[in-house]
Write a structure and sequence with these properties.
single chain; PH-domain like; 4-stranded antiparallel β-sheet; 6 helices; 19% strand; elongated
Length: 213
C-alpha cells in the first residue's frame, strides 16, 4: 500500500528553523523602520544650529540698567589709596630695617593694581541689572562673566551701603541677601536716589511674592 506524499506547504519545519510564511501574510507587509530618515532628520536639526548657538546662554540683550559712570572714579580712588598704603609700608620697612625684600613683595602687588586700574572702566561698564517678571538678573565681568538671577520671592534682606568715597560722589550699593548664601549679590555704583527707589520696589515685590498675592 502506497502512502500519499505530504503537500510541500504542509511539510513540518526541522528543529531550529522557521516555517516559511505564505505569500501575502501580514508580516510581509509590516512597515520597516526607516533608519536613514531618522539619521537625516538628526543631521538637519544639528545643521540648523551654528557652533555659536550650541551651549550659548539665552539672555536678553536689551533693557539692561548700567551703574553710574562716577563709580569708575570711586574705583580708581580706591586703587590709588591701595598703592599709597603699599608704598608707605615699603618705605617704612626700608627706613627702620634697611631691608630690600619688601620691594620684591610690593613690586608685583603694585603692578597687579596698575593693571586693575587700566581695566577699571571696562569692568564698571560690564556691571548691570535687569528687572524681569520673576527675578532680578545681575551681570558683571569682562573675561570671566557672571550672571546671577535672584528670585523676588527668595529675597530676605535688601541692604543699602554707602562708603565714604562713594558717599562723596552720591553713590550707594545694594546688597541682596537670599535664602541661599551662594546667590548673594552686591550691586554697586547706583545713584543714592535710584538705590532707595530700587530697594523700596524690590521689598514690595518680594513681600507680594512671599504672601502669594
Amino acid at each position: 500500500m502506497t502512502l500519499p506524499e505530504p503537500h510541500p506547504h504542509t511539510e513540518p519545519a526541522s528543529r531550529g528553523e522557521f516555517a516559511p510564511q505564505p505569500a501575502g501574510s501580514p508580516d510581509e507587509f509590516a512597515p520597516q523602520p526607516a533608519g536613514g530618515a531618522v539619521d537625516e532628520a538628526a543631521r538637519e536639526d544639528l545643521a540648523a544650529h551654528t557652533p555659536d548657538d550650541l551651549g550659548r546662554l539665552d539672555l536678553p540683550h536689551e533693557g539692561w540698567q548700567r551703574v553710574s559712570k562716577r563709580y569708575i572714579v570711586v574705583e580708581l580712588i580706591g586703587s590709588v589709596i591701595t598703592l599709597a598704603v603699599l608704598a608707605a609700608a615699603a618705605i617704612f620697612i626700608a627706613v627702620i630695617s634697611e631691608a630690600v625684600w619688601q620691594w620684591w613683595v610690593a613690586g608685583p602687588i603694585a603692578l597687579i593694581t596698575l593693571i586693575y586700574m587700566i581695566f577699571t572702566p571696562r569692568r564698571v561698564r560690564s556691571i548691570g541689572y535687569l528687572l524681569r517678571d520673576d527675578d532680578l538678573l545681575f551681570r558683571r565681568g569682562i573675561m570671566w562673566q557672571r550672571f546671577v538671577a535672584v528670585p523676588y520671592g527668595r529675597m530676605q534682606l535688601i541692604d543699602v551701603n554707602r562708603g565714604p568715597v562713594a558717599r562723596a560722589f552720591g553713590l550707594s550699593e545694594l546688597k541682596f541677601v537670599t535664602a541661599s548664601a551662594t546667590t548673594g549679590v552686591v550691586l554697586p555704583g547706583l545713584p543714592a536716589d535710584e538705590a532707595d527707589r530700587l530697594r523700596d520696589h524690590l521689598v514690595a515685590v518680594a513681600e507680594t511674592r512671599r504672601t502669594g498675592l
